[in-house]
């Protein structure tokens, strides 16, 4: 027989509602469960009010970071004690990949993003290009200006999310980058040759963005793997997103000097 | 766990008992991160995985023992060392800690 905890856990995961499940894996009440959601809703107990309160707080923080791990506590939830081990399994919301520019490279990048578990949004102001037919793999295709989309969703972007600017046109690139800089987005990349990027930087500086802020922009976009086709370029971009998240020292095109292909 | 719910539902509907094994910790290189889960029903059918295929066979054995009452819920560790080179282990040299329990929660 399963209980309402399992049913809620299953239903939340299927509905993509972030949920954490804490299981007591060492100590008394072995197997006890506490389900926690971002809103603070909880179900079940690990065996004590104080312990539950501490684990709830930790689980909500872990949901934000998207990690699952074992935490140790005293029997009343004290930190730095080791009476109990609790496995906190987190199912966070999918990271969000926002791609500006409905170009050929976008199709390949959207597919790569889906492969890696991102929720993918494609945005372009030109309605002949930004169509469902051209991007069936995307979760949403938005016909709008980059700054307007970012005004709506910018607050929700966080360290696990990514913005890729593939428009190749200063008219769209500049508002997309300016709209992304104030957000907490983890990865911000912009496509273009070194020459294109130099010109784009000048435009952005003229608009009042500081050189310090612009260090966040990865351009030319992607890792230095000699990618040429849209598909190869997409691999180099998602690889750079992964390397930034894991903190690994992979060679970015933006750090290198020579030709990008 | 999302990929194993369909199988779990099917087994529960048939009135079968289900054991769940989840990766809770890894040391060194391990193929699956904490949270990877596998479910086993009382006739030994499997959904999901907890490694690259190295320890799944042994987990089925542990799960059946649990469902038959011959072991209790708890942590089971699989690792690699020279003196147990022919025992169940991870070819990658890592160690994984699994929590195995019956799905009765």
Short structural summary:
Chain A has 261 residues and is an alpha/beta fold. In chain A, 36% of the residues lie in helices and 21% in strands.
Structural write-up:
The complex is a heterodimer of chains A (261) and B (105). By secondary structure, chain A is α/β, with parallel strands linked by helices. Chain A folds into 2 domains: 4-91, no CATH class; 96-246, NAD(P)-binding Rossmann-like Domain (Rossmann fold, 3-Layer(aba) Sandwich). Chain A has 8 helices and 11 strands. In chain A, the strands form 2 sheets. Chain A has a 6-stranded parallel beta sheet, with helices on both faces. Chain A has a 5-stranded antiparallel beta sheet with strand order 3-2-1-5-4, sandwiched between helices. In chain A, a hairpin with a 6-residue loop joins strand 1 and strand 2. Chain B is α+β, with helices and mostly antiparallel strands. Chain B has one domain (2-102). Chain B has helices spanning 5-13, 56-67, and strands spanning 18-27, 37-41, 46-48, 74-78, 95-102. The longest helix of chain B has 12 residues, at 56-67. The two termini of chain B are 15 Å apart.
Secondary structure elements and pairings:
The complex is a heterodimer of chains A (261) and B (105).
Chain A (H helix, E strand, L loop, with lengths): L3 H11 L4 E8 L6 E5 L4 E3 L4 H17 L3 E5 L10 E8 L4 E5 L3 H12 L3 E6 L15 E4 L2 H8 L8 E4 L4 H11 L6 E4 L3 H13 L4 H4 L2 E2 L11 H17 L15
Helix pairs in contact in A: 3-8, 4-5
Chain B lengths: L4 H9 L4 E10 L9 E5 L4 E3 L7 H12 L6 E5 L16 E8 L3
């Amino acid at each position: 027989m399963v209980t309402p905890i399992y049913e809620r856990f299953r239903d939340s995961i299927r509905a993509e509602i972030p949920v954490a499940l804490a299981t007591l894996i060492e100590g008394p009440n072995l197997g006890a469960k506490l389900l926690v959601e971002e809103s603070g809703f909880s179900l079940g107990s690990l065996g004590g009010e104080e312990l539950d309160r501490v684990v709830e707080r930790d689980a909500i923080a872990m949901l934000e970071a998207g990690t699952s791990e074992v935490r140790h506590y005293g029997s009343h939830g004290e930190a730095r004690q080791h009476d109990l081990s609790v496995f906190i399994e987190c199912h966070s919301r999918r990271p969000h990949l926002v791609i500006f520019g409905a170009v050929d490279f976008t199709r390949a990048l959207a597919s790569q993003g889906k492969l890696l578990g991102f929720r993918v949004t494609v945005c372009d102001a030109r309605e002949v290009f930004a169509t469902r037919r051209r991007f069936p793999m995307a979760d949403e295709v938005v016909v709008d200006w980059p700054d307007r989309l970012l005004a709506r969703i910018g607050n929700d972007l966080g360290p696990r999310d990514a913005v890729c600017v593939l428009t190749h046109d200063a008219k769209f690139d500049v508002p997309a980058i300016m709209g992304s800089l104030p957000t907490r987005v983890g990865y911000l990349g912009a496509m273009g040759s070194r020459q294109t990027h130099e010109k784009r930087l000048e435009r952005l500086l003229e608009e009042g963005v500081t050189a310090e802020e612009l260090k966040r922009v990865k351009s030319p976009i992607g890792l230095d793997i000699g990618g040429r086709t849209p598909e190869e370029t997409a691999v180099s971009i998602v690889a750079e997103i992964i390397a930034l998240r894991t903190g690994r020292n992979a060679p970015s095109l933006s750090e290198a000097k020579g030709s990008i292909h | 766990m999302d990929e194993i719910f369909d199988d779990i539902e099917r087994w529960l509907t048939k009135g079968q008992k289900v054991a769940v094994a989840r990766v809770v910790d890894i040391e060194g290189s391990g193929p699956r991160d904490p949270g990877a889960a596998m479910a086993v029903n009382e006739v030994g059918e499997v959904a999901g995985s907890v490694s690259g295929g190295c320890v799944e066979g042994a987990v089925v054995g542990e799960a059946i023992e649990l469902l038959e009452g011959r072991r209790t819920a708890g942590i089971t560790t699989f690792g690699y060392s020279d003196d147990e080179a022919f025992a169940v282990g991870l070819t990658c040299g890592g160690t994984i800690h699994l929590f195995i329990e019956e799905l009765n929660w």
